[in-house]
Every structure is written in structure tokens, then in C-alpha cells.
């Protein structure tokens, strides 16, 4: 054991940007019991959340210059070797990986260094139906291989559990299902609505459709813009807000210009005040092609904003079609337009969706304190093995 009988716990994540996996990890780092754990972090040397990590008392972290998402054999090998050195130097007992690239490299390094326990959280699998078949199969094979020596696989949706088991990634005894937790007090921001809308350039008679997502192929942000073009023909005063950034950012801006929507869009880049931003919008839209359990949808529900999202991944576990939101097939901007238009034209329907979503998101399983408790339980169960090891 580490000094003072604490468990040495290492988190590995590819990059600390403002995504769902990163927000989840940050909440754990800020909340875990410092009397039980010594916390370590291995990540890339760039990311919007790095300054928050630096301020976490007692956390020891390594910023790796070679850790990046794209596959690069040389950089990946160097990241692996540095990870091994970090694990050995700090006598790490439990390695907990998050995100796909870090999930592979981190678990391989943990196995090579004989860490006592290896845990991986699935924030959406690395493979999907939109990949080239050989690439998808390679990722499935890598997940199967790493699952052999992974002690626990944490999933945040039943969808990801079933998807993993259907592809023979581990066995069901290894899977632990925990809902991502929301802190309700963070989303009581309706009193700021007027000020935030004014700051963003919206008037009270502007219906505002918003999205919070990385500008990458998975999230299909161009579909959001195409839906906006269709909606603008029906609602001349409508405005659109997109929070995020990414590799499709330039294409996104070009499409907005081509469709003559520049005066109707506000692109904020990454923001850390998402609860405040959500208070300013009237409908939340997520156009993803594939998902696990998108935290942005849970946050919109907590903020009292009706949701229109693609019917993919675990979204059906929190949004029921025409009950507390609308679900449309991926890649269909017209369907998005139709559902958003219906909501904008029916105040009672919007209120009904918000009320029903609110009753779901307030369940104990969706509370941040429950997520922390269930995660600590995994560590302590593993820790009992460390003590005996």
C-alpha cells in the first residue's frame, strides 16, 4: 500500500478537453476521499481543463507530449513507455482508464507493469457502424484483447453494456453499470436567462435552438446547420447557438456562410458555464450519428430544456419518443426541423416534456453523489485486494 495506507489510483485519459468523459473524470478527481486515495493522472499536455486539474490539491499528474487521438505508432509507443515508467515510479495499485486511445494504451501499460487492478470506463465504444469494416474489426479485437486483463468495465448506459457483450468484449461479470451523475444545484440558472440571452445577442422574441458538442464527425454538427436552414424558412426570428469546437469547425463556418445564416448563428467555442448557456435556449438539439450516453442530453434535461436528439446509443434510456422529447433517425435534418417546429408551435408540449424529463433526472441514480459513491465502492473493493496483495 501507499504511505498512510492510501490506495494509489491512476487515471489515464487521452486529452482534457470539455467533453463528457473529461467532465466525468474531473468530477471524480474533485470529489474522491483524500483520506483513502492518492490520486494520479496521465494525460496529453494540452486541454481546456488542465488549469482546473492543476488546482486539485494532492493530485500528481504527468502531461505527455506524445499522447494524442490519431493513431501514430511512434507517439503511441512513446506514450506507452512513459506510462509504464509513471506506473512503476509511483507504485500504482489501480489504473482506471477513460476514452478509447487511453483505454488501450493505459490498460496495456498497467498489464505490463503488473498493476493490481485495471478498470476501464466506456464513454462510447471505439468502434461504430460508420467506420471502414477492417478498422472497426481492429478496434473490436483490441477491446476484446484488453478486456481479458481488465478487472472491471464501467458503462454509463445499458446500450454500451449490450453492445460490448454482443461483440464478446469481456464477460457480463466484469461489467458495472453506473449512471452519470448530475449536481442539480448547478442547473438552477433560469433567473439568469434574460442576462445571458442579452449577452449572447438574443432578444426575448427570438426562439433559440442550442447544441453543446464537439465539432467532429460523430456529432454531425453540419446536420445541425442544415436543420437550421430549414427552420429559418418557417421561423424568421429563430436563432441558433452552438457551444464547442473541433476539426469540423472550418467546414461548419463555411456552411453557415453558404446558407446565408451568419447573422443567425452564435458560435461560442468551448464554455465552462454550460448551465448558464442552457438557461438561455428554448430547445436543445443533438445530431450525433452514434453515442453512448451523451452527458449533454442529461444536462439539458436537468436545466429544464426540451430535447430533440438522434435515436442512437443509450439516449432511449432517458428520452422516450413523444413522451419527454423527440427522437429522430441520424442524418435526417428535415426530421429535426419538423420536430423542433412542432415544439416551437406548442407551448404545452414543451412544458410537458420538461416536466417529465425533470422527474427522470431527479432520480437518485442520476445524482452526482450516487455516481461518486458507486465508483468509490469499486475502488474500495479492488483496494481490499490490494491490501491483501
What would you say this structure looks like, in words?
The protein has a seven-stranded parallel beta sheet with strand order 3-2-1-4-5-6-7, with helices on both faces. Strand 9, helix 9 (249-258) and strand 10 form a beta-alpha-beta unit. It has 389 residues and is of the alpha/beta class. The protein is built from 14 helices and 13 strands. The radius of gyration is 21 Å and the shape is globular. The chain has two domains: 3-180 and 368-388, Glycogen Phosphorylase B (Rossmann fold); 184-365, Rossmann fold (3-Layer(aba) Sandwich). The mean pLDDT is 93. The termini are close together. The chain has helices spanning 20-31, 50-54, 73-89, 100-112, 133-147, 158-166, 193-200, 221-234, 249-258, 274-279, 295-302, 333-344, 347-361, 368-388, and strands at 7-13, 37-44, 60-64, 94-98, 117-122, 152-155, 175-177, 208-212, 239-243, 265-269, 283-286, 307-310, 325-328.
Topology at a glance:
Blueprint: E1 7-13, H1 20-31, E2 37-44, H2 50-54, E3 60-64, H3 73-89, E4 94-98, H4 100-112, E5 117-122, H5 133-147, E6 152-155, H6 158-166, E7 175-177, H7 193-200, E8 208-212, H8 221-234, E9 239-243, H9 249-258, E10 265-269, H10 274-279, E11 283-286, H11 295-302, E12 307-310, E13 325-328, H12 333-344, H13 347-361, H14 368-388
Parallel strand pairs: 1-2, 1-4, 2-3, 4-5, 5-6, 6-7, 8-9, 8-11, 9-10, 11-12, 12-13
Helix pairs in contact: 3-4, 8-9, 8-12
Q: Provide the residue-averaged pLDDT.
A: 93
Instruction: Determine the number of helices (DSSP H or I, runs of at least 4 residues).
Output: 14
Sheet with the most strands, sense and barrel status: 7 strands, parallel
CATH architecture descriptor of the largest domain: 3-Layer(aba) Sandwich
Regarding quaternary structure, what we see is single chain
Amino acid at each position: 500500500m501507499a504511505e498512510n495506507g492510501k490506495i494509489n489510483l491512476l487515471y489515464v485519459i487521452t486529452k482534457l478537453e470539455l467533453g463528457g468523459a473529461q467532465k466525468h473524470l474531473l468530477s471524480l478527481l474533485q470529489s474522491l476521499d483524500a483520506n483513502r486515495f492518492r490520486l494520479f493522472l496521465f494525460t496529453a499536455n494540452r486541454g481546456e481543463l488542465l488549469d482546473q486539474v492543476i488546482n486539485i490539491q494532492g493530485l500528481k499528474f504527468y502531461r505527455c507530449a506524445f499522447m494524442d487521438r490519431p493513431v501514430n505508432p511512434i507517439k503511441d509507443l512513446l506514450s506507452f513507455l512513459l506510462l509504464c515508467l509513471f506506473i512503476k515510479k509511483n507504485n500504482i495499485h489501480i489504473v482506471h482508464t477513460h476514452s478509447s486511445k487511453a483505454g488501450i494504451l493505459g490498460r496495456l501499460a498497467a498489464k505490463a507493469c503488473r498493476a493490481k487492478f485495471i478498470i476501464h470506463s466506456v464513454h462510447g465504444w471505439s468502434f461504430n457502424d460508420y467506420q471502414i469494416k477492417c478498422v472497426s474489426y481492429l478496434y473490436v479485437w483490441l477491446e476484446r484483447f484488453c478486456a481479458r486483463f481488465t478487472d472491471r468495465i464501467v458503462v454509463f448506459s445499458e446500450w454500451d453494456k449490450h453492445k460490448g457483450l454482443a461483440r464478446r468484449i469481456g464477460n457480463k461479470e466484469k461489467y458495472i453499470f453506473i449512471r452519470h451523475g448530475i449536481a442539480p444545484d448547478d442547473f438552477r440558472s433560469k433567473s439568469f436567462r434574460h442576462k445571458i440571452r442579452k449577452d449572447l445577442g438574443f432578444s426575448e422574441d427570438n426562439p433559440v435552438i442550442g447544441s453543446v458538442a464537439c465539432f467532429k464527425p460523430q456529432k454531425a454538427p453540419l446536420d445541425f446547420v442544415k436543420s437550421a436552414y430549414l427552420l429559418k424558412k418557417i421561423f424568421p426570428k429563430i436563432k441558433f447557438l452552438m457551444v464547442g469546437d473541433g476539426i469540423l469547425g472550418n467546414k461548419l463556418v463555411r456552411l453557415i456562410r453558404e446558407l446565408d445564416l451568419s447573422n443567425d448563428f452564435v458560435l461560442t467555442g468551448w464554455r465552462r458555464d454550460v448551465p448558464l448557456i442552457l438557461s438561455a435556449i428554448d430547445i436543445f438539439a443533438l445530431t450525433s450519428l452514434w453515442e453512448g450516453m451523451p452527458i449533454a442530453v442529461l444536462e439539458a434535461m436537468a436545466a429544464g430544456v426540451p430535447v430533440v436528439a438522434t435515436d442512437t446509443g443509450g439516449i432511449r434510456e432517458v428520452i422516450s419518443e413523444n413522451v419527454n422529447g423527440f427522437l429522430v433517425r441520424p442524418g435526417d435534418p428535415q426530421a429535426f426541423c419538423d420536430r423542433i417546429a412542432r415544439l416551437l408551435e406548442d407551448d404545452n408540449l414543451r412544458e410537458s416534456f420538461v416536466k417529465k424529463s425533470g422527474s427522470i433526472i431527479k432520480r437518485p441514480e442520476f445524482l452526482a453523489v450516487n455516481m461518486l459513491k458507486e465508483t468509490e465502492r469499486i475502488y474500495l473493493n479492488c483496494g481490499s485486494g490490494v491490501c491483501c496483495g
